[in-house]
Structures are given as C-alpha cells and as structure tokens.
Amino acid sequence: MFNIQNYSTQNIKNDILSGALVAVALVPEAIAFSFIAGVSPVVGLYGAFIIGLITALLGGKPGMISGATGSVAVVFVGLGLSVKNMYPELGVEELSMMVLHYILLTSIIAGVIQIAIGALKMGKFIRLVPQPALFGFVNGLAIVIALAQLPFLAPTDIAQYGGNWLDIMKASFSENYIMYIIVIVTMATMQFLPKVSKAVPAGLVAIVVVTLVVYFGDIATKTVGDLADLSNVSMPSFTPPLTELFTWSSMAIILPVALIVALVGLIESLLTLSVLDEMGGERGSGNKECIALGVGNSTSGLFGGMAGCAMIGQSVINFTSGGLGRLSSFTAAVLLIILVVSFSDVIAAIPVAVLVGIMFMVSIGTFEFSSLSRIKYMPRSDAFVLITVTIITIFEDLAVAVIAGIIISALVFAWEHAKIFARTREEDGKKIYELDGPLFFGSVTSFNEQFDVESDPDEVVIDFKDARVMDSSGSEAIDALTDKYKKAGKKLTLRHLSEDCKKTLRSAGPFCTYEEDDPTYKVATNV
After folding, report:
1. The whole model's pTM is what?
2. How many CB atoms lie within 10 A of CB 470?
3. How many angstroms separate the CA atoms of 190 and 208, rounded?
4. pLDDT digits 0-9 by tens, 2-25
5. Contact 306, 106 (CB under 8 A)
6. Which pLDDT does position 293 carry in this prediction?
7. What residues contact 74, with CB distance under 8 A and at least 6 apart?
8. Which of 39, 351, 320, 59 is nearest to 213 (CA)?
9. How confident is the model at residue 316 (pLDDT cuts 50, 70, 90)?
C-alpha cells in the first residue's frame, strides 16, 4: 500500500500529473483492445480501471501500469470463434452477449491460476529468461506498439487498394495529413519540452494544448469520440457468471484459453517488471505481482471487465514522466473511470493523433537501440536468441517468443557445456584420471571417450574433485564405466564423489573412497 512517509510534495505532484497523462492515454488503448477481442469498448475500459486499481494497491512494482492489453485480447479472438461455432442458432446480439460471458468467466479462472502461481512463489522463474531474450521481448514489443498505431492512420476504405502499400500510404497522407501534422507536433513536444522544463509531463502538455487548438480552431480530424460512443458509460456493477457455462463442453473451451491468458499475462507483467527494475535500479516482487494481477483479473471478470496484464508502453510513459510511486498508477486507474463516466465529452474531443504521437515516442523510448550495437560483440547464440524472440513477438505471441528464447538458450547452454575433460598421470603404477567439467546427460558421451579400459594398467583412479555429477544420467555413466573395468579384471577407485552421488550408484558404490573433502552438492535424480 502507500508509504506516506516516503512521499514528498514533489513526489505527489509528479505521481498525480503522470497518472493523469496515463489515464488519458489508456482510453483509446482500452477501446482498441476491446475491438480486437470482439466486445464492447466498455468491457476494456472496465478491465483497465479494475485491474489498474488493484495492481496499483497490491502489485509488486510501484508505478507499473496494468490494464486491458493487446496480447491478452488476441487470445480472446480464438475464444470468440469457438463460442460462435458452439451456438450457431443464436442471433447477433445474443451471440455477442454469450461471447462476453465466456470472456468474463475465462478472465475469472485465469485470475485464479495467476493467484495460485504467485502463492506457490513461481514468479521467481522469470529469472530463467536470459538477457538476450529480454532484449528481444522489449524490441519486439516496441515494434508492436508502433504497428498498433498504424490502423488509426489508415484511409477510410483501405480495402479498395487491394493490399498495395504504396497506394495505401499515398491515400493515408492525402486523407489524414492533419493527423500526421499533429503526430509530428506531439512527438516534437515530447522530445524538446523536457529540455526546457520538467514541471509538467510533456505528454500531458501535448494532449491539452493540441486538443484546445483542434477544438477551438474547428480542425477536422479523428477524435476519441469517433472510435466509440462513451456517452452512456456507468460505473461497473457485479456481473455473476452464467450458470449454464459450468458444463463439460463449455469448460473444455474455457479452461485451455484461461491457462493461456494466465501465462501470457504473467509473462508480460513479469518481463515489464524486469524492464522497470533495470530502468529504476530497484527490484520489484514478482510473486506479489502474480497475486495482484490474479486478483485484478478475477475481480474484473466479476464486474464486467476483460482480463489484462501490465502494459509496458503505459508503464514507460508513467516512469519517464516521473510517476515512480503507487499514487501514480492509482491516479491513472481512478481518473480513467472518472473521465469516462463524468467527462466523456472531454475525452471524446481529444484527437487520436496526439495519442498516436505519444505512443510512437513510447515505442522509440522502449526499443533497446544499444542491443543493435551489442549484437556484433555477442556470441552468435545470444544474437540468434535476441533476433528470434523479437521476430516471434512481432508475428506470433509474447508467451511463445519468451518460451522459445528460454528453450534455445537452454539448448545452447547444454551444447556448450556438453564436454568433460580428463588429465592423466602415472603414480606408483596407477593411472589417475583427473576430471574437469560437469557430468550430465549432455556430456556422457564426452565422458566415456576419455577412458581407454583395454590399455589402462591394472589399477585406475578416477578423481572427481574438479568435476560435478549433475544428474542421474551422470550416475548411470559412472556405473556403466565401473562395469567395464570390473569385467576387464582391473581395480578401480573413485575419489571425491558427493554423498548424494554415492547413494545413486549401484555398481560403482563399493569402489568409492570416503574422504573428508568430498563435495556435498545435490544430484538431480528426476532429469
């Protein structure tokens, strides 16, 4: 919760102003993501308010902004198609209502899954994401944020151009030249105003000034009011799940989607938390964020809102505008619902182009340009992970991208460490093998290649002082090698094996020495 003692007048001012900027920027995002999911804009706005409010109070990172997001909305597209196939007899309005209830129940269940993951303290597994994958995630998401703004600049009847991008661009410039001017003015304001004064967030100044100029200058341009009718939005109310959804056939559709929503939401939230940790230098709590997001999503589903997660774009806006405390994200959530419910006419008058300009600047600020210069100095495997995660994030799915990055990095790590070396020396007629490196499933072949059972003398010593047996595959390899020496009628001694390793050995156990400096590490037996 809020730590009032750590708040100064300057902190409060920065948090409130930054939160106000984010609140305004959240409106078109929530509306756009609602359209993607195939539901009313009100569903996205309710989700942004409820999730944002709860994560502001309970989340693991002060100042991080959560709400309805595109990555989660895309998952709901498939759910909507499944529901339409399941109820072909329903009319358009009835079908839309049924899709909504499926989304709400999915959001509730996804939240429960996230709470369980946080309660089991599994948020720490975000540490498994390697740095190149994190760079790829950030760069891919920055590109996604920029690409998400392009539909706002598209010509009215884009279908008539048949996918010819050159003609579409020409029509866009011709039809929306005012929007392009506003975008450029907004971006210039955000770039240069902070160099003059940081008293008020540059994005908020751009919104207020451009809106006033457009309104009083009677300039014809697309506004938030053109995206959706916000005149009848009220406060969210309790919306219990339909009892008819608790059937095997319905749950067969809902549960897989809920699991994907939960994982996508957690991955994006925890990676956003990691990005903000690097920007601010203070570490947040991944497990707290898991629980807070789960509570937020379940509550959102119970009050007519869709599930969501952390929003890296809005979080970066908040952070760079001075919103570092919980008051900033709290202000954003509360002000969002106040603006939509009580000042819908004001919100409706805001030009879409000024918000597009802000998001373009967020995209530029989010992209890790330093990673481009680092690529030529990176190992090829790291560069491959970075580029792969970036591409998959853009064209496929965030969760798939991050999991692919982890798998590729793990395989590369295993390959690079799949070698174990042996130094040999003679001592009193004995041949001593001094091993160096990890012995696990990947290095078993290399381990076996080090020994020449037929040519070795009658007494052999294998010293594991500088080697480590990592898993049961390593133990099995030691047993197999022991059997070979035993069948050859040669005496074998094994030194410096850990107690855990000795317990897993069957054939080699009697040949182990027991010395004071034996290691005490654990051997994984469930690999």
Report:
1. 0.70
2. 21
3. 13
4. 454 444 556 788 888 899 888 887
5. no
6. 96
7. 36, 397
8. 351
9. confident
